[in-house]
Design goal:
- The model has no long low-confidence stretch (mean pLDDT 86).
- The termini are far apart.
- The protein is mainly alpha-helical.
- 48% of the residues lie in helices and 0% in strands.
- The longest helix has 12 residues.
- α2 packs across α3.
- It has one domain.
- The chain is elongated.
């Protein structure tokens, strides 16, 4: 079902790589009238070789720099 929207999903991520799975689910619902769970989006990204990070990298601590 989501494969039909793969180009849309991948283009959104190309434009805004920090888009969360929840945000993508909302955009699919609002812009494409598609209701899915975030696991479905994650699986599509996995099939397309895309990675998803749950949070942004944290800066190194001062202690680690010593």
């Amino acid at each position: 079902m989501l494969d039909a929207h793969a180009d849309f999903i991948l283009s959104v991520l190309a434009e805004a790589p920090d888009t969360t799975l929840d945000e993508m689910v909302e955009r699919l619902r609002d812009e494409r009238a598609v209701r899915v769970v975030r696991t479905a989006v994650w699986k599509l990204l996995d099939r397309h070789g895309q990675t998803y990070k749950k949070r942004l990298p944290m800066p190194a601590s001062k202690r680690a720099q010593m």
